[in-house]
Amino acid sequence: MAPKAVSTQSKAQRVTMAAVGKLAGVSQVTVSRALSNPSVVSPETLQRIEKAIEQTGFVPNALAGALASNKSRLISVLVPSINNTTYAAMVQAFAEQLRHQGYQLLLSETGHTPEEEEALIKTHLSRRPDAVMLTGVDHTPSARKSLESAAIPVAELWDLSDDPIGFCVGFDHTAAGRTVADFALAHGHRNAAVIYADDERAHRRKAAFSQRFTQGSGASVADIALAGPATIGGGRSAFAELLAQGFGRGVIFCSSDVLAHGVLIEAQAQALSIPQDFSVIGFGDQAFAKDLFPALTTVRVDREQLGRLAATELLARLNGVTGGGKRHDLGFELIERASTQSKKGERDVASL
Questions:
Q1: pTM of this prediction?
Q2: pLDDT for 65-120, tens place per residue?
Q3: pLDDT value of position 155
Q4: Are 11-60 and 70-172+302-332 the same fold in CATH?
Q5: What is the rounded distance in angstroms from the CA atom of residue 223 to the CA atom of residue 201?
Q6: In what order do the strands lie in the sheet with 131-135?
Q7: Contact predicate 24/49, CB 8 Å
Q8: Domain boundaries along the sequence of the chain
């Protein structure tokens, strides 16, 4: 019978602080002091410890250090989707500011339901982060209570609230929807539809757009709601569904540039012209929006500035500085490009 193979992985032993001390010729306590506060040991001793760490590949136990200092140097970040480039740009700018100050991110994807977010908030809080960054301001009562009880700085991004848990940095989604409706009406549109993803903030923009457009045109607004996150395929299928329902010439407001991209592709597939047959408006002004054909009219939010400001405010609170304000409205800008008709066009009036 062949001898049983023994994995070299199972034989490996974790390098301990005691082992580092033995190699460096000092006690475990001295190694601990050198790691937590290098100035308390002599340069010669510190050099020996650093050499022993390099030789052994020792990595200090951050959890033990966090227990001793009551600081984990971790910032929890919760976003609805890690695939969404809207959040990626915001988080990247946020992370860069914090990384320079010695903090790292603990990132999780919440989906778009408050219950999923609540579960992840509690999981993250169990890791004892120094602060939390959330996307949006709508949370379950239980999640809010947990965050308040944690007594750590909380940043809520991409939305506004008059009663944030800590502070919020974002813009008014309702105002954005109304602004798009006013733009569409001013450009001669009297027929409109909204394609939107399953996101509470997208719902708000859709409701504000529809109400304002109906007030200005007297016409109801068609809409297609998509389950799950925005995708190009979702935009294509939603536009095809609108056409099958008999939606005539008009303006289509999409809750993201990704959905709008799908609409442009489907229009081309069905030999329709943009903006001659339909005007298309996106949301987010992603990097690709200006390079689409035709270039996409959309709503721009400065995602990088939003992330940087949130990080600056969070760092101030982590350093005990308060008074920076609890509500930061960065606003938005409607960027007009070639996917919408000029103001003198009145071509969709007849389709009512």
A1: 0.81
A2: 554 555 778 999 999 988 888 888 999 999 999 998 889 999 999 987 899 999 99
A3: 97
A4: no
A5: 16
A6: 104-109, 74-79, 131-135, 154-157, 167-170, 327-329
A7: yes
A8: 11-60, 70-172+302-332, 173-301+335-351
Residues 6+ apart with CB under 8 A from 285: 257, 298, 299, 300, 301, 335
Residue 5, sorted as left (phi over 0), alpha (psi -120 to 50) or beta, turns out to be beta
- Distances 56 to 22, 33, 44, 50, 114 between C-alpha atoms, Å: 11, 18, 19, 10, 45
The CATH classification number of 70-172+302-332 equals 3.40.50.2300
Nearest C-alpha neighbor of 72 from the set 51, 103, 98, 43: 103
Could you tell me the fold of the domain covering 173-301+335-351?
Rossmann fold (3.40.50)
Q: What is the Cα–Cα distance from 184 to 254, expressed in whole angstroms? A: 13
Tell me if 79 sits within 8 A of 110, measured CB to CB. Answer: yes
Instruction: Report the alpha-carbon distance of residue 136 to residue 110 in Å, rounded.
Output: 11
User: Tokens 């100050």 sit at which residue?
Assistant: 101
The size of the chain, in residues, is 352
What is the CATH T-level fold of the domain 11-60, as seen in this structure? 434 Repressor (Amino-terminal Domain) (1.10.260)
Q: Which residues contact 189 (CB under 8 A, 6 or more apart)?
A: 217, 250, 251, 279, 341, 348
| H-run or E-run covering 65 | helix 62-69
Neighbours of 269 (CB within 10 A): 11
Render pLDDT for 168-177 as a digit per residue (tens, 0 to 9): 999 999 999 9
